[in-house]
Amino acid sequence: MSRSIKWKQNGFSIGLQWLIPVIIVIVWQWLGSLGVISSRILPTPLSTLEAGVKLIRNGELFGYIGDSTRRALIGFAIGGSIGFILGFLNGIVSLSEKLTDTSIQMIRNIPHLALIPLVIAWFGIGEEAKIFLVALGVAFPIYLNTHHGIRSVDSGLIEMGRTYGLTGFALFRSIILPGALPAILIGVRYALGIMWITLIVAETISSDSGIGYMAMNAREFMQLDVVVLSILLYALLGKLSDWLAKLMERSWLKWHPQYR
Amino acid sequence: MASPIPLSNDIETPRSEKPVLVKQGAETAPESSAEGGLGIAVGGAVVQFGQQRVLRGLNVTVAPGEFLAIVGRSGCGKSTLLRLIAGLEKPSAGTVSFDGEASAGLRSDVRIMFQDARLLPWKSVLDNVRIGAPGGDKAKALEALDLVGLADRAGEWPSVLSGGQRQRVALARALAGNPRLLLFDEPLGALDALTRIEMQDLIERLWQERQFTAIIVTHDVSEAVALADRVVLVENGAISLDVDIALSRPRERVSGFAYYEKMILDRVMTRSKDDGSEDGYSI
Predict the structure, then answer these.
(1) Structural domain total, chain A
(2) Do the beta carbons of residue A157 and residue B115 sit within 8 Å?
(3) ipTM strictly over 0.85?
(4) Is residue A76 in a domain?
(5) Which has more confidence, B248 or A182?
(6) Does A111 contact B at CB distance below 8 Å?
(7) Domain CATH code at residue A79
(8) Which residues cross the membrane (chain A) (predicted)?
(9) What part of B 94-153 touches A (C-beta under 8 Å)?
């Protein structure tokens, strides 16, 4: 009984979340089929869907999604690790902070997408260029939030841990890391957004595979339905990674009253 | 804020009555108390933060198994003294020794309870107590939780507990390793009056059962008189008053109690004898 009520509540809440996207798609289709929006400007959702089905049939779509996802994840792993390690080091060792923080803050304020011409000159249009840009974009939000998270761990808890004989790695694992985790996960969530934005721009400008390439290639042949399809794919992938970040928060921060 | 609520029937407790637990074992040699409380001697201790001297050559000794209360106005250095004994501060001059041996910092048989419970919010109540149990022993942790009457809350997150319950979990964590010295840094300061009295009774009962040495820092003179064998007043970084509380336990908050409470309080407030004002003594 109570389970079915809960299920109904969940269903209602999911329905509410998706209400606006669904309305937009319906209105878009309606305006398109009335001819208010010309298909040369914006294809209707149905024709976009048809393009998608066609691309799935010939196998190109999943190949492109796979290429993009792989770049995104490799770049995220590299940049995220660098940001995490630096943030952790600078949060704990003040010498390391004095040494590197100023440089990091200077580099952080350069829009990383401004480096695209330089990156193409260095790496060409191969994988390295895109992975480099994603890693660069992702590293800073993770660095900042890890650094801030470790700095803001309650010093009373650390003192308590020391009086109970916790030192070194044991202190890190049972007090510092869990205390910094809420801030680190905020950084992860923010970095996931930057990851997709960087990849979209990088793939659109210079690529021979991936979703961005698919869009640019389709534009050359005026296949606007494929262009719209790739934009929608980015929206879905962005939503997917946000959902994953939320899932991480729910399972790792279940002690936190805010995340229950 | 004091809590002079008479808890029990008004049986007269004349202050001439022989003290029961006062200074038991004060004269025993240090080695005979190997499993009991630690004996402490602080000699000529100076602690300073930058230019500011907080303790200026302070001397105090605590007998094994004794319950000492340290009172004083805020900023007088009473918490610093406690942190010095705990090994959290280093003296720039003077010594701290336990059972005759010079202190070398933090010890596993000395536990400290702070004003805030300092529970790890990401660990369950039981796992918090296990931090204090040797080797993280689960059975010992459960036993300690049982002592403070919270065994049924073992699986909960600390965030759902009340302030008094959190302090009881912190007490269980401190007790789980069978400490020989338990230090309390105003642990009841943030609790409401009724919870405080409940906690005072619990601390007194556990101290009598476990025979550890206890030192409590408080600004509440009534709490000091209710709990301690001996009350010392810290003023300007040194001890300026040292009184034995010759009241039997359990202590009734009646005439004899009021005598000590007023005497110490007058001294804290540096009131003269004929100054009869009795108004608020929260410092």
Answers:
(1) 1
(2) no
(3) no
(4) yes
(5) A182
(6) no
(7) 1.10.3720.10
(8) 12-31, 72-95, 107-125, 131-150, 171-201, 221-240
(9) 106, 108, 111-112, 114, 116, 118, 120-123, 131-132
